[in-house]
Amino acid sequence: MADCIFCKIISREIPAQIVYQDEFVTAFRDINPEAPVHILVVPNDHMVALDQAGQADEGIVGKVFLAVGKMALQEGATAGGYRVVANFGVDAGQVVPHLHVHLLAGRKFGWPPG
Ligand code: DGP
Predict the structure, then answer these.
(1) pTM of the model
(2) Which atom of ligand 1 lies closest to the CA of 14?
């Protein structure tokens, strides 16, 4: 999608610290990390939110979450634990309208989230 910052990261039009990429998903470090490990995992094809996904998106949604697990292992986050967050819409604070899952690790997290 032309104006999407994450699409531009995926196509490498703008720089990011990409830590994993395959045919379907890309993972890169968040520009404003909230934890020692803060990675965003995104589908390569633009989609906005889970509520806009349909049956045809079953595979890519699964691939995004499998990649999150792969990144947790790659970052050594499984021993201490990790948090997975996805924000959708205004109240949740979604800033970038390209579906992304945050992988956070390396410190303790509070619950409930703010
Ligand atoms: P959210 O609130 O869930 O939409 O979070 C969007 C995240 O995206 C936020 O933590 C900061 C990150 N982000 C925004 N722009 C960029 C960028 O240009 N590069 C990188 N690496 N991360 C970005």
Answers:
(1) 0.98
(2) 18
